[in-house]
Amino acid sequence: MGVSIEDTSEKMMLIDNNGRVISDDMFTALISLIMFKTVQGGTVVVPISTSSVVDKLAEQNNGKVIRTKTSPQDVMNKILGNEIKESVYEQFTLHFDAIAGLVKILDFMKSENYALTDLVNMIPDFYVSEKEVECSWNAKGKVIRQIIQENEGQSIETLEGVKIFKDGSWVLVLPDAEQPICRIKSESYSAEFAEELTNLYVNKVKEISQK
User: Fold this and answer.
1) Quick one: average pLDDT of 145-167?
2) Which of 28, 67, 31 is closest to 47 using CA atoms?
3) Burial 7-21 (b: 16+ CB within 10 A, else e)
4) 3, 14 in Cβ contact below 8 A?
5) What is the mean pLDDT of residues 91-112?
6) How many Å apart are CA 28 and CA 34, to the nearest integer?
7) Where are the domains of the chain?
8) Where is the Alpha-D-phosphohexomutase alpha/beta/alpha domain (predicted)?
């Protein structure tokens, strides 16, 4: 396996012996799987933007998923808060300390006799698509309000931005806190449909913000 650690030592990227890159959603799924197998019936904390594959892993391992806002501080606060009783240290290191997290992953692989490829193969296939679209500061509130109104009666979540669920897919429209943009992320049953869903809302944000 290969490992790349950022200069800040907060994040890592792994490569299994089949050449698959484990980063972003796949890395979150990997560390969630490790937590579920380490603590039976355990709970993992992930951002609202994380793939639903984590929920599938939780279901397979009798675990629970708590979602937070997307900022690292929100994830950190939830992990360190009172809601998570078990394995606080393990979750914190896997999310925010790349070197200690790598040691945790290697220890788990050794104790359970897994190769990294074995763990990655346990994660169901999933397809996500992400894009950014320009959106002025003044238009962000209008964009979110109109999208909520247009999806009245649908299953939506407004923990941060607006997340719309439909037919086994979802799309998240997330105004950036520091830049005049919105981030659009979707997940669906194929890469093509996930990208189509993302493009649909990229165009919708453009249309609303330019009115």
Assistant:
1) 95
2) 67
3) eeeebbbbebeeeee
4) yes
5) 93
6) 10
7) 2-121, 127-209
8) 25-83
Look at the domain 2-121 and name its fold. Answer: Alpha-D-Glucose-1,6-Bisphosphate; Chain A, domain 3 (3.40.120)
Mean of the pLDDT values across residues 17-34?
94
Look up the CATH number of domain 127-209: 3.30.310.50
Residue 91, pLDDT score? 87
Residue 120's φ and ψ, nearest 5 degrees, are -60, -35
Tokens for 173? 């429209």
User: Contact, 194 vs 188, CB < 8 A?
Assistant: yes
Q: Cβ(62)–Cβ(83) under 8 Å? A: no
Q: Report which residue type is found at 183.
A: R
Name the amino acid, one letter, at 174.
Answer: L
Which pLDDT tens digit goes with each residue over 5-16? 988 888 899 999
d(CA 91, CA 82): 14
